[in-house]
UniProtKB/TrEMBL annotation:
Biological classification of the source: Bacteria, Bacillati, Actinomycetota, Actinomycetes, Bifidobacteriales
Pfam name, any one: SBP_bac_1
Name of the protein described by the UniProt record: Sugar ABC transporter substrate-binding protein
Top-rank taxon: Bacteria
InterPro entries: Bact_solute-bd_prot1, SBP
Organism from which the protein derives: Bifidobacterium canis
Length: 417
């Protein structure tokens, strides 16, 4: 049965629904996967409405979101990547439902605040940081250096605390015939390392120009040149394998899990999996040494498609993911909840992770992600870095290609005055 539209939506809302459709792309044994499974159980118990959950891959949703959300196959609520090129683009296309009424109803803005809120709001051009709410996060994330302490100890190498010590440790591993960094250039891992190297030399004005189009980006500046040259140098020295050009994020993560590589620079979203999949192994982490800015932001967003026929129920589900029970479970499963009770987090390693992220927030150190400015830059940046690593493009050529792709995407989006 079709009834009146809910919460001002132009989409007909189904009366007395028996189910809602939820999509996300988290692993079952990861912190978010564990927590959101509990949220689904609570939702079904409290509402009597069944959750039809479908797990999608990150790439499935990233590549096909516009087509899916513009069809009758759209889910009622789904996880989606934050940023201008993703959630911002869909919001500007009218494919996402404004959450302003629900933010007021559930007081989400009392839990999602500061830089965590920036990625949930988008203006009419799809630029983050202002405008209506189109997404709600319930966790945070940053990108850290993971270290296999067992491999370090076995080879007599100290865990690095400074940038120079990091480079020295990589050389020591290479001297022993071990490639130190687990990398994947077919997806996000290598571009995150590249961006971290950029951030180590960048300031707030550069980040604002690059991410929010407030000023021009000089693609030959110190930060971008240094990062691109360093990726080439580390590849030439064998710190990064040239074989990574064909490896995806899961491949790189598995390379660290199975002990092939002693270091892995990637997101806190891996932390829960490492806790589960590497039991008995001695793993530690730190933010990237020697940098005041780190790759990271709020976690991905829960969004409600404009074509959802169960928008009120979708909002109720989102609210449950912010409940103390779900937030505490996420924390104790290795995640970075934004509304957990600190005294309820019992795992020592997870407490350290949360404390590290809280310090990042306190220092205003989040530097966002490099692919956000345009809808095509994720693939284009990967392509440039792949050519840099396999030697078919030099540093100057890679920077020129990045600049051309960036400028083209920003101009096509019409987001810059």
């Amino acid at each position: 049965m079709l009834g009146l539209a809910g919460c001002g939506s132009g989409t007909a809302q189904e009366e007395n629904p028996t189910s809602i459709k939820v999509w996300h792309y988290e692993e079952d044994n990861g912190a978010m996967g564990i927590a959101w499974k509990k949220a689904m159980e609570i939702f079904e118990k409290e509402t009597g409405v069944k959750v039809e959950f479908e797990k999608k891959s990150f790439e499935q949703i990233r590549q096909n979101a516009s087509q899916i959300l513009n069809s009758d196959d759209a889910p009622d609520v789904m996880e989606y990547n934050k940023g201008n090129a993703t959630a911002g683009l869909l919001a500007s296309q009218g494919l996402l439902h404004s959450l302003d009424d629900y933010v007021s109803q559930y007081k989400w803005d009392e839990k999602v605040t500061g830089s965590l809120a920036d990625t949930g709001k988008y203006n009419d051009k799809g630029v983050m940081g202002s405008g209506n709410w189109y997404g709600i996060t319930n966790y945070g994330e940053d990108v850290v250096m993971y270290y296999n302490k067992d491999m370090f100890e076995k080879n007599g190498i100290a865990i690095p605390k400074t940038y120079d010590e990091l480079v020295d440790a990589m050389q020591q591993f290479k001297d022993k015939g071990i490639t130190p960094l687990s990398e994947g250039a077919a997806e996000y891992p290598l571009q995150h390392l590249w961006w971290q190297l950029v951030l180590s030399k960048a300031d707030d004005s550069f980040i604002k120009a690059y991410e929010m189009y407030d000023g021009d980006v000089d693609w030959n500046n110190e930060a971008l040149t240094y990062a691109t040259q360093t990726i080439k140098d580390w590849t030439d020295k064998g710190y990064i394998s040239k074989d990574c050009t064909g490896l995806k994020a899961e491949d790189a993560g598995q390379g660290f899990i199975n002990g092939t590589y002693p270091m892995f620079f990637s997101g806190t979203w891996w932390f829960g999996r490492f806790q589960n999949d590497m039991k008995g192994k001695n793993i530690t982490f730190s933010t990237f040494p020697g940098s005041k800015k780190v790759v990271g932001s709020s976690g991905n967003l829960w969004v409600i498609p404009e074509k959802s026929k169960h928008q009120d129920l979708a909002a109720e589900f989102i609210n449950i993911t912010l409940s103390p029970e779900v937030q505490d479970l996420m924390g104790n499963s290795g995640g970075l909840p934004i509304a957990a009770e600190p005294s309820k987090i019992t795992d020592k390693a997870t407490k350290e992770l949360i404390e590290s992220f809280n310090q990042v927030l306190k220092d205003n150190a989040l530097g966002f992600y490099p692919d956000w400015p345009t809808s095509t830059f994720y693939d284009e940046l990967n392509a440039s870095l792949q050519e840099l690593v396999n030697g078919t493009m030099d540093v100057k050529g890679a920077l020129a290609k990045m600049k051309a792709d960036y400028d083209k995407g920003v101009e096509a989006a019409g987001v810059k005055d």
